[in-house]
Design a protein that fits this description.
The protein is an alpha/beta fold and 245 residues long. Helices cover 50% and strands 11% of the residues. Helix 4 runs antiparallel to helix 5 and helix 9 packs across helix 10.
Length: 245
């Protein structure tokens, strides 16, 4: 069997992520509605999402960006309604936003079994995750992912085609035997297809709007959508067999 290079995304591919953000955003919206009785939950969530996504181009996927979207939303509605901005309320919202980074991570079903099978099949496994170093390392440690990835871990604050290109150069990857596995069309799949490596898309149960984009990329590589993580080894095996025919 020909050895493949397989890059995995972390958040919502190997471990749950967005559902924790949704829980904290719900807490935020509840608190905001208690302070602003004339504003609807959907208005609050839309403004928070707008500010959060808009900040990515400048700040990337740093953890601080998310709590600041709470603060920005609060200030926006204070200006809109004439409510006084209070330092203690701003601090409360910042601390609420940071709570999401303290929640213990939970692996996606069959994470260990999938990675173990690929490792035992002789493939080279890499982790390519977006976020800041401290928070992503926390998750990697909790999930004991160095068992499978060892030192082959890349953390990008700006997870895009440039970041992926730099990784592929670093590992000297042959695109014909290199795969990207992830749930984000924006940061996993589109960059992979632009670099003409194979891509396996696993839609998340609870997806972040930012990750959803149209895939209009010319490529000669394989692009497959599957329903669950444990299908990855069979997809890889089938592709290898087809290449050998």
């Amino acid at each position: 069997m020909k050895k493949q290079n397989i890059l995995f995304n972390l958040d919502d591919t190997l471990a749950y992520c967005n559902k924790y953000f949704s829980l904290v955003i719900n807490e935020f919206a509840d608190q905001m509605m208690a302070w602003f009785d004339s504003i609807k939950e959907e208005e609050i969530k839309q403004k928070q999402l707008q500010l959060d996504v808009a900040a990515i181009s400048e700040y990337g996927l740093k953890s601080e960006r998310f709590p600041e979207s709470f603060v920005g939303t609060y200030k926006y509605f204070c200006d809109l309604t004439g409510r006084e901005k209070k330092t203690d309320e701003i601090q409360f919202l910042r601390e609420l936003g940071f709570k999401v980074f303290e929640i213990p991570v939970e692996p996606i079903p069959n994470m260990n079994e999938t990675l173990l099978r690929l490792k035992e099949d002789g493939h080279e496994l890499y982790l390519h995750t977006g976020g800041d170093e401290a928070n992503q390392r926390r998750k990697i440690t909790q999930l004991e992912l160095t068992t499978f990835f060892e030192h082959r871990i890349f953390i990008s604050e700006h997870k895009d085609t440039t970041a992926l290109s730099n990784i592929l150069k670093t590992i000297k990857a042959d695109p014909h035997v290199t795969w990207m596995v992830g749930n984000s069309l924006r940061t996993d799949i589109v960059p992979a297809l632009k670099m003409d490596i194979h891509a396996i898309y696993i839609p998340a149960e609870n997806e972040w709007t930012y990750n959803m984009v149209d895939v209009n990329v010319e490529h000669s590589s394989t692009f497959i959508t599957i329903n669950s993580l444990n299908e990855v080894p069979d997809v890889i095996d089938k592709s290898i067999q087809e290449q050998m025919m």
